[in-house]
Amino acid sequence: MDELSAVYEWLGEISCGVTGVHSAHVSQETSPASAERRISYVNVAGLLPACSVQDAVAAARQHMKDAGCEWAAVSVWGFLDAPVSWHGARHGRGPLLGGENDFTLLLLPRDQYVLFIAAGEGDGFSRISPG
After folding, report:
1. pLDDT in tens, 54-63
2. CA–centroid distance for 98 within its chain
């Protein structure tokens, strides 16, 4: 679980443009086989419909196949004070929080994925029980 947290934090650093700075929370260990790799970063801003996010995920999956990438990630950052959350849940806000919801889909081989969700404590989606 710590490795997933480190990956999520590293992806956040890339999204925020923090490069070349080593976070105290991220492991400094490197694998000799993959010590240095190139990444591609694409940023699209604005109010996007869900189908645009689905298209981005499909494009990332296709790039994985075409370029032989081991993984890809698509991150979506919500807007402050959006009126609704996922699945029509009331958006809500926690103390000292803007109320936006963010998620990152880490795409893995064989159509597997890891979904990271950052939702505020006051968000209705956070209280929806699975199943």
Report:
1. 999 999 999 9
2. 18
CB 37 within 8 A of CB 31: no
For residues 114 and 131, what is the distance between their CA atoms, to the nearest angstrom?
18
pLDDT per position as a tens digit, 90-126: 555 555 555 567 889 999 999 999 999 876 665 555 5
Please choose, from the candidates 77, 75, 118, the residue with its C-alpha nearest in 3D space to the C-alpha of residue 94.
Answer: 118
Starting at the edge strand that comes first in sequence, how are the strands of the sheet with 102-108 ordered? 72-77, 102-108, 112-118
Beta bridge pairs of residue 76: 103
Single pTM value for the model: 0.71
What are 94's two structure tokens?
């926690």
| DSSP letter, residue 68 | T
Strand partners, 115: 105
Closest to 48 in 3D by CA, of 6, 78, 74, 71: 78
Q: Residue 12's beta-bridge partner residues?
A: none
In 47-129, alpha helices (H)? 50-67
Size (the chain), residues: 131
In the numeric block, the tokens 């890891």 are attached to 114
